[in-house]
């Protein structure tokens, strides 16, 4: 069990949803935080919502995951805040709600640019720091759709599948450097992620899925993620009955194929 008190933790996608909830949970653990997202105003709001005594230990670093040319400078700035980084939580991302036949190729490229290339780009930029310190932890928020695909989420699922392949490889390459990898696979979590989910033409959905609206409370999700980080778990599934689909897919693939026709997961 790892004590997160005084650990330096960099969280992307921290301006709303799971990232925001994790910020509050981590502050309660006594961690020093670097919060990143595109919207500086929203990051400021998150910091202001934290207890006043903890706010000096929270630094804000706006970042756009579609701008890999900015990652080196952002990482340099992040390291200057507290002198080092112990954990990077890759949480920034974008979702999708459109059928394959209706989805423009540029939409798939956009999803991959944020969810996959943005995540691995920032990870690769920070990796030498972890190697030099002989320690560190990458925590990547994937999805249960990182374990299987489902309707209306082909691009989203593909981007999350790709993350599992990359981080499984990173884990195997850098275990001797004491670098840990934790993959987080949420199901339906009550967050506003579907408001900005991309439709087939690239415009935002602007509505909340029923599954999200009735999903696992985001604060509970954050607690389970932080617990997985503390235990350095390799992979964790969070949600309700939709999580069972991961195991059905693994052990009963034919049954899974029949069930998933009528089940939408995150």
What does it look like?
The chain has 9 helices and 9 strands. The chain has one domain (8-262): Rossmann fold. The strands form 2 sheets. A 7-stranded parallel β-sheet has the order 3-2-1-4-5-6-9, with helices on both faces. It has a two-stranded parallel sheet with strand order 7-8. Helix 5 (154-173) links the parallel strand 5 and strand 6. It has helices at residues 17-28, 40-48, 71-82, 105-133, 154-173, 210-213, 218-230, 244-251, 253-259, and strands at residues 8-11, 32-35, 58-60, 87-90, 136-141, 179-186, 189-190, 216-217, 235-238. Helix 4 (105-133) packs parallel to helix 5 (154-173) and helix 8 (244-251) packs across helix 9 (253-259). It starts with 7 loop residues before the first strand and ends in a 7-residue tail after the last helix. The longest helix is centred in the middle third of the chain and has 29 residues, at 105-133. It has 266 residues and is α/β, with parallel strands linked by helices. The protein is 43% helix and 14% strand.
């Amino acid at each position: 069990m790892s004590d997160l008190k005084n650990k330096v933790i960099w969280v992307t996608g921290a301006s709303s949803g799971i990232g925001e909830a994790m910020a509050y949970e981590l502050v309660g653990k006594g961690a020093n935080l670097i919060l990143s997202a595109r919207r500086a105003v929203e990051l400021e709001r998150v910091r202001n919502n934290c207890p006043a005594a903890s706010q000096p230990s929270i630094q804000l670093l706006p970042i756009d995951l579609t701008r890999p040319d900015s990652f080196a400078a952002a990482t340099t700035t992040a390291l200057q805040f507290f002198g080092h980084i112990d954990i990077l939580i890759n949480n920034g991302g974008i979702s999708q709600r459109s059928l394959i036949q209706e989805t423009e190729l540029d939409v798939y490229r956009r999803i991959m640019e944020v969810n996959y290339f943005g995540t691995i780009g920032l990870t690769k930029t920070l990796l030498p720091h972890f190697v030099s310190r002989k320690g560190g932890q990458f925590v990547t928020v994937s999805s249960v759709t990182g374990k299987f695909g489902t309707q209306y989420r082909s691009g989203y699922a593909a981007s999350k599948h790709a993350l599992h392949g990359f981080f499984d490889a990173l884990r195997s390459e850098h275990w001797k450097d004491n670098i840990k990898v934790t993959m987080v696979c949420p199901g339906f979590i009550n967050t506003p992620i579907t408001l900005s989910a991309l439709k087939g033409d690239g415009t935002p959905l602007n509505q909340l899925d029923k599954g999200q609206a009735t999903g696992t409370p985001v604060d509970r999700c954050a607690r389970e993620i932080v617990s997985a980080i503390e235990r350095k778990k390799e992979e964790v599934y969070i949600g309700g009955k939709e999580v069972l689909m991961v195991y059905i897919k693994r052990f009963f693939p034919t049954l899974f194929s029949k069930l998933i026709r009528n089940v939408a997961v995150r």
